[in-house]
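Researcher: Structure prediction, please.
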Amino acid sequence: MFTIIPHLTPPIAVAGTRSTALSHPLAAANAPTLAAGALTILVLILGLIFMAAAAQAIRDLAGVLAQLVRSAVTIGSALVVIAVVAVTIIALLTHH
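Model: Predicted structure follows.
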């Protein structure tokens, strides 16, 4: 049994170092790159969420502005009708 232990020590050490990703020198060297990639993905996801919220807000604003334009057109046409009626009444009263 004591002769097996020296043969098992390197595989156990390799298995232990592979279980923790940053204990390997190459993995430790790639850690900043992995962190930057994760940060980039996080920024992209947050950017997409912001863009979706902004698009929804713009759609809502466009609906409000469309309703405002419809109201302005209705009020404008009512004012034109009132002006035509007023001019007609004034014209009838001044000629008689």
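Model: Residues 43 and 49 are 10 Å apart (CA to CA).
Researcher: Thanks, that helps.
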